[in-house]
Amino acid sequence: MLSSAQIAQLELQLNKLFDQCQVVTAAVVATIDGHFCAQKQRANTYSLERLATMGSTLMSLGDTITAELKMGGCDNVISENREGIVVFMHVGRDLVLVTLTTQKNALGMLLSHTRRCVEELTKTL
Amino acid sequence: MSNEIKLVFTGSAGAGKTSAIAAISEIPVINTDVRATDLTTLQHKSKTTVAMDYGELTLDDGQKLRLYGTPGQQRFDYMWRILIKGALGLIILVDNSGTDPIGDLARYLDNFRGFINETSAVIGVTRMDISAEPNLQCYYDYLGERSIQLPVFPVDARSRESIVMLIQALIAMLEYGN
Ligand SMILES: Nc1nc2c(ncn2[C@@H]2O[C@H](COP(=O)(O)OP(=O)(O)OP(=O)(O)O)[C@@H](O)[C@H]2O)c(=O)[nH]1
Ligand SMILES: [Mg+2]
Fold first, then answer.
1. Domain range for A42
2. Average pLDDT, chain B
């Protein structure tokens, strides 16, 4: 599991993500086996503990599918929905970042900022 | 009976669901195991299932089985509900060397109660070579207290023979209506 210094680092980077990206509604970091690590949301709308675990499930399915198709590692999984978008990304070997927006046409923004957040996280952890 | 049957393996973390499906599948299994970050809950292995296992087996009489395995850890309970849809039978594996095997069994009986009442289930107790207690009678006593009639078998999840026997018992129950 993560040390408290690492959790603090995660929270710092999530704060940065929220400062830089206006469209992100919520974000959560989980271990690849589904343990909640850190979260941030604009309003207290969601129960993100379960989303953390689901993030690990979906990321593993993404990896399983890309392995089946021999497409190399799975970078991210995108879920576009009637009332928002959810992005799932690997952070290094051990973590998963899930971000979401309730704005339907903000995929580009959400993706680019989430990717940047992942880069920062892999650098600092 | 229909020509394709969906069966689900569930049960406590580390009981051997992934091993059992790998032991009997005739196709390369679909596996979603990842490195476990909490070694306390999984003392004897380093990987754990986070989505599902999948394999296939054709019985001697030509009946094709689709085999699904669930994650064992409680936080993945949403996958249990997804995977049980359309299943005809349930195999509950219990790790006999765990800290509370009867309690583990109770948890899965409760979680899948509706399904078990409507269809059928068998219980396989694994890792009895590592811990002989509780013995099978303890399991039957517990089931008796709850007025549940399900067969309990000692199995080794790594052994093809052992798991096929468990499946055949379940199929027989499905065919002859318990
Ligand atoms: N000694 C012994 N080992 C067993 C027996 N059955 C299974 N195992 C071992 O126990 C472990 C079971 O691991 P898995 O098959 O990953 O268990 P699982 O139920 O899929 O676990 P989760 O996905 O984490 O819920 C493996 O290392 C098997 O080799 C048994 O009867 N005796
Ligand atoms: Mg497993």
1. 4-104+114-124
2. 94
Query: What span, in angstroms and rounded, lies between the C-alpha atoms of B126 and B163?
Result: 10
pLDDT higher than threshold 80 for residue B41: no
- Calpha distance A123→A97 (Å, rounded): 15
Q: How many domains does chain A have?
A: 1
Q: Which structure tokens are listed for A81?
A: 């929905």
Pairing relationship of beta strands A26-31 and A95-101 according to DSSP bridges: antiparallel
Domain-located, residue A12: yes
Q: How far apart are CA B76 and CA B50, in angstroms?
A: 7
pLDDT digits (tens, 9 = 90+) for B105-160: 999 999 999 999 999 999 999 999 999 999 999 999 999 999 999 999 999 999 99
Question: Is residue A109 a part of any domain in this protein?
Answer: no
pTM over the 0.90 mark? yes
Question: What pLDDT does A71 receive?
Answer: 95
In this structure, what are the phi and psi dihedrals at residue A50, rounded to the nearest 5 degrees?
A: -70, -35
CATH of the domain at B146: 3.40.50.300
Residue B2 is predicted with a pLDDT of 59
Amino acid identity, residue B165? M
Which of B30, B31, B76 is closest, CB to CB, to A34? B76
C-alpha–C-alpha distance, residues A50 and A30, integer Å: 10
Pocket lining: B34 vs ligand 1, CB cutoff 6 Å: no
Looking up residue A83, the CATH number of its domain turns out to be 3.30.450.30
Q: Which residues surround ligand 2, an ion (CB under 5 A)?
A: B 17-18, 49
Under DSSP, the state recorded for B76 is G
pLDDT at B177 over 90: no
Q: Does B40 touch chain A (CB under 8 A)?
A: no
